[in-house]
Amino acid sequence: MICRSRARRRAGGAVFLLLAVAGCSNGGSALGTVEYTTPAGQVVKIQSPPDDGCHRLPGGARSVRNYTVDDLRLYADANCVLTKAGDDQSGRTGGESFYLGTQMSVPFTPGQTPWRSYSVVGGGA
User: Fold this and answer.
1) Model pTM?
2) Three-state SS string across the chain, please?
3) Radius of gyration (Cα) for the chain, nearest Å?
4) Contact by Cβ (8 Å): 28, 52
5) Per-residue confidence at 112, pLDDT binned at 50, 70, 90?
6) What is the strand order of the sheet 63-68 is part of?
7) How far apart are CA 75 and CA 56, in angstroms?
8) Tens-digit pLDDT profile for residues 59-88
9) Whole-number Å distance between alpha carbons of 21 and 15
10) Closest Cα partner for 112 from 78, 63, 65, 77?
11) Which is nearest to 80 in space by CA: 45, 115, 39, 44?
12) What residues pair up with 106 in beta bridges, in sequence order?
């Protein structure tokens, strides 16, 4: 049998650990990994990218996997600027950007323009 004071300390420690982890999730980054494949077939992994601003995808990305806790928006433009109507993006004509939810992926589509940048949805200012 565990004495009550030891059980309370364990419960208190668990609560403290939970609060510490929750506090870290607001540290200005999208916790997790963004993984993409370049047109040359190279796999690139970005660990916990900052949650603000525009992030370039050097070499471009044919497919992207979002293993972070935040959603992403992918752009065909290197500066996170929406493309003009009629530009081909992700196999669709007229697409401006692509919303990629957390724990989701977007595969290569024949004729697709490589993604050149991304931003974290709901990221910092």
Assistant:
1) 0.68
2) CCCHHHHHHHHHHHHHHHHHHHHHCCCCECCEEEEEECCCCCEEEEECCECCCEEEEEEEECEEEEEECCCEEEECCCCCCCCCCCCEECCEECCCCEEECCCEEECCCCCCCCEEEEEECCCCC
3) 19
4) yes
5) confident
6) 43-47, 32-37, 63-68, 104-106
7) 9
8) 899 999 999 999 999 998 888 887 665 444
9) 10
10) 63
11) 115
12) 64
Indicate the residue type of 111. Answer: G
Task: Give residue 21's identity as a one-letter amino acid code.
Answer: V
Q: Which amino acid is at 17?
A: L
Residue labelled with tokens 């323009």: 113
From 118, 101, 114, select the one nearest 66 (Cα to Cα): 101
Residue among 122, 117, 125, 114 at smallest CA distance from 34: 117
Q: Name 117's Cβ contacts closer than 8 Å, sequence gap at least 6.
A: 54, 55, 56, 57, 74, 75, 77, 78, 79, 80
Contact assessment for residue 30 and residue 67, using Cβ atoms and an 8 Å cutoff? no
Q: What is the 3-state secondary structure (H, E, C) of 1-21?
A: CCCHHHHHHHHHHHHHHHHHH
* CA 58/CA 2 separation, integer angstroms: 56
